[in-house]
Inverse folding.
């Protein structure tokens, strides 16, 4: 389903911290001021949408976001006449319900399209027309011209081949491309710190190291973003509280890592191991082997315990 949101002057939607992205923010702002459309390319979790929200808020301009997927048809992007009112009033402009594209055109705002390489080709053609002509013509409505300031900013993960389509050269020819790779370890530690309760800094650094190790393992095609580290930290805090053990308990961390990372990583074709097995290997490499004097509280009790101590019946 298409999701849209708008951001008026001075309104913030969610966390606005942009860490270690000063160069990209400056380049994005310069591109928008020059009247260019922009394509942000990079893996998930590298701050693409946060960066754009920060720039849009700083410039105090309208911001319209739409999620790119196979259901984003031209009609959903442009808008439609209210069917019930058409019967009584006909095709008049006042009963047309603007979609995200027309909203951005009329207000001179930024249209942010996430997952650009997941939208249908006919929808992409509508975007190309709006980018090139700064206007579109809607049947029965007429010409809608862009107000000053309108620009398209699209984002996509160029490494994801599942459910995506190749973006045409026509779009690259109409955009300035800004590449956004993963941030440094120090930056990702800061991001985790901003989004979690107070946790031990050394343990937090290990969590980030674990997540970063998923990006260059031979059995992993795509690793986890920093969101995996955030979830490990949050889950560990709550799981440790439930078990009555410290947050950095070895077994708590492993359980949190499996839950947080096994669905985020994509294994290489032909890999004969499960994501949980690969995560466990990486976890041991970062946090060390399982402590021999601390049984996993999630495992059944030692059979010896049920047999009683020597001398007992």
């Amino acid at each position: 389903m298409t999701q849209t949101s708008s951001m008026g002057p001075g309104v913030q939607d969610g966390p606005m911290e942009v860490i270690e992205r000063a160069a990209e923010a400056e380049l994005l702002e310069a591109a928008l001021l020059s009247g260019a459309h922009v394509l942000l390319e990079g893996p998930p979790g590298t701050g693409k949408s946060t960066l754009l929200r920060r720039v849009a808020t700083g410039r105090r301009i309208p911001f319209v976001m739409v999620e790119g997927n196979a259901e984003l048809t031209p009609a959903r992007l442009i808008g439609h006449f209210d069917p019930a009112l058409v019967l009584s009033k006909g095709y008049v402009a006042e009963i047309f319900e603007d979609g995200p594209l027309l909203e951005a055109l009329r207000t001179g705002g930024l249209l942010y399209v996430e997952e650009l390489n997941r939208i249908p080709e006919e929808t992409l053609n509508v975007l190309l027309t709006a980018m090139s002509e700064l206007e579109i013509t809607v049947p029965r409505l007429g010409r809608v011209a862009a107000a000053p300031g309108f620009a398209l900013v699209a984002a996509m993960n160029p490494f994801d081949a599942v459910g995506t389509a190749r973006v045409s050269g026509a779009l690259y020819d109409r955009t300035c491309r800004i590449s956004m790779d993963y941030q440094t370890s120090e930056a990702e530690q800061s991001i985790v710190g901003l989004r979690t309760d107070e946790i031990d800094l050394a343990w937090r650094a290990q969590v980030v190291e674990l997540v970063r190790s998923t990006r260059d393992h031979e059995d992993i095609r795509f690793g986890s973003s920093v969101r995996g580290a955030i979830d490990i930290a949050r889950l560990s805090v709550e799981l440790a509280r439930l078990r009555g053990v410290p947050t950095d308990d070895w077994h708590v961390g492993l359980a949190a890592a499996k839950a947080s990372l096994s669905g985020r990583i994509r294994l290489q074709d032909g890999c004969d191991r499960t994501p949980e097995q690969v995560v466990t290997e990486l976890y041991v490499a970062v946090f060390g082997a399982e402590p021999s004097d601390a049984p996993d509280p999630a495992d059944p009790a030692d059979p010896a315990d049920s047999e009683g101590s020597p001398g007992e019946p």
